[in-house]
Amino acid sequence: MRLIYFGVNWELILRDFWVDILRGRAKSSRCLFSRMPKPRPKIARTRPTKEVSVMAWIEDAEQRVLLVHQAVGLRLWTLPGGKVKRGESLVKALRRELYEETGLRAQIGSLLGVLDRRDKDSITLLFAAVPNKSSIKVKQNNKEIKKADFQASLPKKASPSAKYFWSARRGPVKKIPKIRASTHQFPPIL
Question: Would you give the distance in Å from CA 97 to the centre of its chain?
Fold first, then answer.
């Protein structure tokens, strides 16, 4: 008869325990537990993670760019977009953020640029987007966004990511943002 429970061969452990008792080496039943195999310590594996955000580059017929004015926090002008939720695709996240911030439904196009903020452990991806309709209407119950509008130039109070992507797409802005980042811009599609 074999005594194997929970992956432990109890027959061998008990046999060795009784041998120790008969030979006078075991003084108590604690000796039994010292013979049990020790559980292997679990190795904590940490995955390096970055917070992923997506932004949209939307131009109108006059080549003005859609910007949103934040209603909370630093109240900066920025490109529409936001953080990607766990398990959410990049395109789905951008469509959700666009709708939440501007009320727009849009077709998401190609990837235009990447901003890797090492100081913040975050990465921002800029996508081209084309709205399904040309009118922009900010939802009345939106607490995050004060205003959404097409702008011909970047306002002074703009977010660092908006400044970076604006300068990469349109040319340098007056004050270049100092961002410790690895960046890559994709060539324009002709």
Answer: 14
